[in-house]
Write a structure and sequence with these properties.
Layout (H helix, E strand, L loop, with lengths): L6 H20 L34 H13 L5 H10 L3 H6 L5 E2 L4 E4 L1 E7 L2 E6 L7 E4 L2 H17 L24 H12 L10 H13 L4 H8 L4 H8 L3 H11 L6
Antiparallel strand pairs: 1-2, 2-5, 3-4
């Protein structure tokens, strides 16, 4: 059986068989479930790649500069989405779910509580963050405040002042100004801007990766990066972004001084 199907598929059918037979035992059709002690198969055929070896790609400093210069020159509708994501590390779904009331200038933080999700066939709305760690506050710095101020001005001019009220979304799609942005909108906009730049293809997730990479390059504490990103544990953060650590380690050892007798 395991030679015909992948281990995950075989385990799915085994679980199904166990559940059916458990029901048969409950209904007193049989006295004992013959699959009770059968162990699930381990998937040893395919080694799962580390997360950093899959979809994750950070922009170089040169790519970052080139891309944002073009976005500003083209007056791209999603420019401030790009800027906020790369300055905060938030996911595109979290950016899409942001409302003006989530910006707390009193406490100087941005509240991340929700994400854009499919609520019905073909319809998108907002829902709770996927994990407890995903609910977090991100401190506002001057760059973030400038991005938000520019976005509020853009929304008021192009859609209407009503869309800057506390319950309104901060970002809207170019096609449907009443709909929150989602990854396909942002990724399509990225593709348009990448034309004739010489920059290798990337998706919106690269802004999150770039934020983390720049943070590590500037020696921000990994635990702080973990909390800003909304990761559940430090191991996840380090697994994703250790490709930037070798150079940091080299610099750290050069600075390290240990006085010996």
């Amino acid at each position: 059986f395991s030679k015909i199907y992948a281990a995950s598929t075989a385990n799915y059918y085994m679980t199904l068989a166990k559940n059916v037979l458990n029901s048969a035992v409950s209904d007193r059709i049989i006295q004992y479930n013959p699959c009770f002690n059968v162990k699930m198969l381990k998937n040893t055929a395919v080694k799962k790649p580390k997360a950093r070896e899959t979809i994750h790609r950070a922009l170089t400093l040169e790519e970052q500069e080139t891309f944002f210069k073009k976005a500003r020159k083209k007056n791209a509708w999603y420019e401030n989405v790009f800027r906020l994501m790369i300055c905060t590390g938030i996911r595109v779904g979290e950016a899409g779910a942001l409302r003006w009331k989530d910006i707390d200038y009193g406490q100087n933080v941005m509240h991340i509580k929700e994400t854009v999700t499919l609520v019905d066939y073909g319809a998108f709305g907002t829902g709770d963050a996927k994990t407890e760690a995903g609910v977090r506050d991100i401190a506002l710095n001057d760059d973030i405040k400038k991005i938000l101020a520019d976005q509020k001005k853009k929304v008021a001019e192009h859609i209407g002042i009503a869309y800057t009220k506390p319950d309104a979304f901060i970002f809207y799609t170019a096609e449907e100004h009443k709909a929150p942005i989602r990854d396909n909108n942002v990724n399509s906009a990225i593709d348009v801007l990448l034309k004739d730049t010489g920059i290798a293809h990337f998706t919106s997730h690269a802004f999150r990766d770039t934020f983390a990479t720049r943070a590590f390059e500037q020696e921000i504490n990994p635990n702080i990066v973990k909390e800003i990103l909304g990761h559940t544990d430090l191991a996840m953060t380090m697994d994703l972004y250790t490709q930037v650590l070798p150079n940091i380690k080299q610099d750290a050892m050069k600075k390290l001084q240990i006085k010996l007798a």
